[in-house]
Amino acid sequence: MRTARLYLRLLGAHFRALLEYEADFLILALATVLMQVVNLVFLAALFARVPVLNGWTFWSMVLMFGTVTLAEGVGSLFFEGMWNLAWQINRGELDYFLVRPYPVALQSSSAAVGINGLSNIVVGGLMIGTGLAHVDVVWTPWRVALGVLLLISSVVIKLSISLATNAASFWLSSPTPLFAFAMHQVGDLARFPLSIYPMALKAVLGVALPFAFISFFPVAYLLDTGQSRWVGLLTPLVAAYCAGTAAFIFKRGLRRYESAGN
Amino acid sequence: MRAYRALARATARSALTYRLNLLLGLGTVFVQLVALLAVWRVILAQSSVNGFTWPQMRVYLLVAFAAGTVVSAFGDFRMAFRILDGDVALDLVKPVDYQKARFAETIGGLWIEVLLIGVVVGVTLAVTGGVRTPAGPALALFVVSMLLLVPLKFLIVYGSTLLCFWTQNFIGVQWARLAVMNLLSGALIPLAYLPGWLATVAQWSPFAGLTSTPALIFLGRVDVRHGLTLVAVQLGWVLLLWFGARLMWRAGLRRLTVNGG
């Protein structure tokens, strides 16, 4: 509890700083909304001519894009600092974090606020909402609870992959998170149904870097779409595995950390 | 002229030194190519849609990839930060024209980008099968269109970066530009798929010249006469944006405040 409260206070400091730059916030918000609108126009134009893509309809695709957008939004708004880890290591800024009585990973991830995350959460939420309204799923209390669990798991997987790939900076010692960014780009492939890709890509996105568990597998299970639906039920387990692995990698990396010296 | 040549060489050298950054900058374009190839391969496996067959769509997406790759060695980030933190003042005292200097830098990195495009296009065609090149006149028109694409894309990127004089924020402007370019150029989906009014707007916008025009000419989806019109539109936009950007630069300089000395 104390950890969460302190986390919000740490973020709050950066948030207040950001509010000083209203125009910045507006430009970023508009730009991210525009990006999602372009995605939607693309999907709408595509599905106006073809009814289904490997069993996926327009609305189920919107649902998938929405989940990715929401997960990325949560990452930017609450955990943007992760992307500064490479810089923090390179500059020796972790020295300060290490002497404070608070988890180092959380101090690092709270070191910045990506205000564009706010608009991504809103737009992602809207996409999920309208997507769900247009697909026929019989909603029982158990299914609603499962849906919420799957969504939370998706977000955890997204955050864990970001933390793990950024923690690679402990070994790579570059001042910019090139590796993490490259992996994030690869993850963009998982916006589309995994079934359209060749086997090698399926293995990468399903197992090595489980981006497919952020949207494809859970949504496929929830909507009963495509083959091997049951895999979606594994999402919470994958989330636990990813979180554990990310924490482990971060811890091992932290042991390698040597200050930049003064 | 010598100064511009030196700038061009310097960009190529810096692109080669920071080659990982260059490749990473192209990651998004490459990922989009892979994803869209996979999507269209599934969709067009049964029948053609909107008159596009799978071999045609493949070529279309490769042209989009090429268009997305050129002009990426141009340091729009560097230019933006120099404007934002005032280092641009140093550029003002140099005895070269600012816009021409940036264009020279763009040209300097071009050969590296063309090499990369060659590799990706070669591998893709080797894996998915060959391509039928159009007849002489159409091919010539395609080459002209691809050549015009370079200054056109440069001017769009350059002009949007000049907005930093007004916005004090670059990332947002860049994201918005990328999104609009992706849609209206036809890189994300051929303009023929868009709703009629949007397709018309896109067709006459400067963005169509960034993918749609060369791709349609190569595929022979427009005849040579129509192709000439489209290339003329491209050329018109290049001229208009070149002088428009100069006006913007002059207006931007009047807003520039540099603190300290």
From TrEMBL, chain A:
Statement: the UniProt record of this protein carries the keyword Hydrolase: no
Record-annotated membrane-spanning stretches: 25-46, 58-79, 111-132, 144-164, 199-223, 229-250
Top-level taxon of the source organism: Bacteria
Keywords: Membrane, Transmembrane, Transmembrane helix
Pfam hit, one: ABC2_membrane_6
Protein name: ABC-2 type transport system permease protein
Species in which this protein is naturally found: Actinoplanes regularis
Automatic annotation (TrEMBL), chain B:
Keyword Transmembrane helix appears in the UniProt entry: yes
Family matches, as Pfam families: ABC2_membrane_6
Residue ranges of the TM segments: 20-39, 59-77, 108-127, 139-166, 178-204, 224-245
Superkingdom of the source species: Bacteria
The keyword Transmembrane helix is assigned to this record: yes
Keywords: Membrane, Transmembrane, Transmembrane helix
Alphabetized PANTHER family for the sequence: SLR1174 PROTEIN (PTHR36832:SF1), SLR1174 PROTEIN-RELATED (PTHR36832)
Protein name: ABC-2 type transport system permease protein
Species this chain originates from: Actinoplanes regularis
